[in-house]
Amino acid sequence: MNVLRIDSSPLKEASVSRGLLDVLQNKLESQGHEITSKRDLYYDDKVTLGSQDRYMGYFTPADQQSDAQKAAVAGSNELALEFAAAEAYIIAAPMYNFGVTAGLKTYIDLISRAGISFNYLPEGPVGLLKDKKAYVVVSTGGTPVGSEVDFVTPYLRTFLGFLGITDVTFIAADLSNVNREESIAKATQQIEAL
Ligand SMILES: Cc1cc2nc3c(=O)[nH]c(=O)nc-3n(C[C@H](O)[C@H](O)[C@H](O)COP(=O)(O)O)c2cc1C
Fold it and tell me: Taking every annotated instance into account, which residue ranges of this chain make up the domain Flavodoxin-like fold (predicted)?
């Protein structure tokens, strides 16, 4: 499988999710899969909030876009096409204030594109990304994954499902502010068992 790696912590060496994505990457590579692309969302100049030109550009046919809209949509086109081309995903999802980080949410707004990752049909929107596999590492400081205030897991399950990605494995690296070593060890075990 061609795998896209997505890091969404601004932290580098100190990041729990980044370290665990390294473990997951090694695991998948040892099984013959290849990491063919990587996005480090806090360090990627395509991952920006955007302005009116981008969002008006989304809803304007390409041959009718202004030059400003074309330029504003270009980064999103690249990210969305790259996402659609991958066969599998490894995604780091640190919890910030009970949801995903701003970097991950911004990326989601960039790759969720009608005509690329989903389509509007008369009966409603339908995901275009079929037969893909996603692994998501959810890292938290004090909120248990699966608790009623964990909005990361259900949100990502819903979003990925919206795009057609229903085969999703969540790896919990939670409560690292309570016991960091235990949190990482538990998640590592889960990855090694994949
Ligand atoms: C701005 C900010 C908000 C956070 N909000 C939460 C939270 O709502 N619940 C929680 O359990 N941990 C929270 N944390 C802790 C992080 O989830 C935790 O440090 C986790 O390991 C982050 O992933 P990372 O180490 O890969 O960056 C927050 C941390 C920061 C910096």
Answer: 1-193
Angle (deg, nearest 10), helices 102-111 and 67-85: 100
| Pairwise CA distance, residues 143 & 122, whole Å | 40
The sign of the torsion formed by the CA atoms of 159, 38, 25, 180 equals negative
Band (150; pLDDT cuts 50, 70, 90): very high
Pocket flag, ligand 1, residue 21 (CB < 6 Å) = no
162 pLDDT band (50/70/90 cuts)?
Answer: very high
Going by pLDDT thresholds of 50, 70 and 90, the confidence category of residue 62 is very high
Write down the residue that tokens 């538990």 correspond to.
186
Total domains in the chain come to 1
Give the closest residue (by CA) to ligand 1 atom 23: 94
Q: What is the pLDDT of residue 66?
A: 98
Instruction: Report whether residue 98 contacts ligand 1, using a CB cutoff of 6 Å.
Output: yes
Question: Does 141 contact ligand 1 (Cβ within 6 A)?
Answer: yes
d(CA 42, CA 8): 7
Here the CATH number for the domain that contains residue 97 is: 3.40.50.360
Binding-site annotation, residues for FMN: 9, 15-17, 95-98, 139-142
**Contact yes or no for 140/95 (Cβ under 8 A):** yes
